[in-house]
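Homework help thread (please don't just give me the answer)

Our assignment gives two proteins as sequence + structure token strings and asks us to describe the second one. The first is just a warm-up. Here they are:
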Amino acid sequence: MARVFMVGATGLVGRELLRLLQADPQVTAIVAPTRKPLPAHGKLINPVGDDLFALLTKQEQPVDIVFCCLGTTRREAGSDANFHYVDYTLVIESALTGRRLGAQHCLVVSALGANIRSTFLYNRTKGEMEQALREQNWPRLTLVRPSMLLGERSSPRLLERITAPLFTLLPGKWRAVAAKDVAQTLLEQAFSPGSGVKVLESDRLHCFHSAH
């Protein structure tokens, strides 16, 4: 039985994961701070506020597992600084909050191509985020790196709508992956044995579920 802390519950992967967590008998409570209220559920504790960073600092409920599904794009964020704040600062602070509340396992949605030395802002920020999480010295850290995500976004991204058909045809880790498969992977990893750092590339997400 586990108490879960979850950030990013309104996103593409987050919505799928929240649904799975609510249905899973191993999960007794879900603490999920958001800017807009989530539909009520018996397991759900949903602090709401415009400032997610402030919400994180106020959390006191003890938890066992942290899920972070935060993510945006440079275009959506409006500036390099805003993008870095969401995809780096808030992710790191979410993990630190979970650690403060007693969590032993942190699971984070990163991205294909995450690389601290990348010349691309998106990939470099994801790489820096992963490095900072490693430096938190979690007993267990799971990093999932999906390729393009498939699913219905609340705010569709034009570029993804145009390129998604192409990404479904690409081989290996470049092939697009369904958000529900990423969410299922996160859930299964959370309740499987293990320790240390584990990185799952996008092709592992396809293979992972073909075996189930």
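The one we have to describe:
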Amino acid sequence: MKQRKTIATNIIIAICFGVWVFIQLFPSDSTITNAILIGAFYKPFVLAGEFWRLLTAGFVHVHLWHLAMNMMALLSLGKIFEPLLGMKRYLMILIPSIVVGSLFVLTSPENSFVVGLSGGIYGLLAAYVTLILRTGGWKMPPVRAALINMLFINLLLNFLPNISVHAHLGGFVTGLMMYGIITTDKAEVHKRVNYGVALVGLIGVLCFISWQNRTIPTRSRYLGTDLNVLQILNDGPLHKYSYFLAERLDVVYGLDDGFVRVLGKE
């Protein structure tokens, strides 16, 4: 029997676990600070130019239960889709779903701290639902039962504390579009183009709304957290970068060289 390879899935699980260990063990004031240091989605830092956080947030988990639930969901869906689609097309669903899920969060006018692979998982879930409907698998009781259980568990996650429904929605919509792009027959080029245009249009709208909501309200500013991260960067090999980031954060918050002055006094 041919082995069903899940190389990308296994690597992602290993990365997520390694990041979680770092967050638990790195000596700082809190795990939140550690999560931001290693790539969590934190709106002020994204607005300051660290756009890579839209992706890296997917590999960051603070709590063990969150990590365990997401990894079990990823493993279940990865066993289906990575062998079926191949590593490249599998990641073409997972990665954009993480990024666009984060963009959905960025549109919020409030400050946001978000971690977890849920956006990517919801993208794979959308692809799974589409596959079942296309192939008529929903007519088979075992497949239908498995689908219902998977949907129930993932919907239940939305009601847990500190879970971003926005990221789930963004990931699900992106998964639908990306699955359409990569599985549509080559002869039906117009369908692929339609999916691609729809996704690009969605991203454009999200970027516009995010720009409109780029101001961080005073009530949701956590300047102490920002300063902790900057101080750790300043004390390490990223000393110069800490000043660059401090300058960008001063612009984001509309401060008069506030963070820059504090770092300069150290």
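TA reply:
I won't write it for you, but here's a hint about the kind of observation we're looking for: The mean pLDDT is 88.
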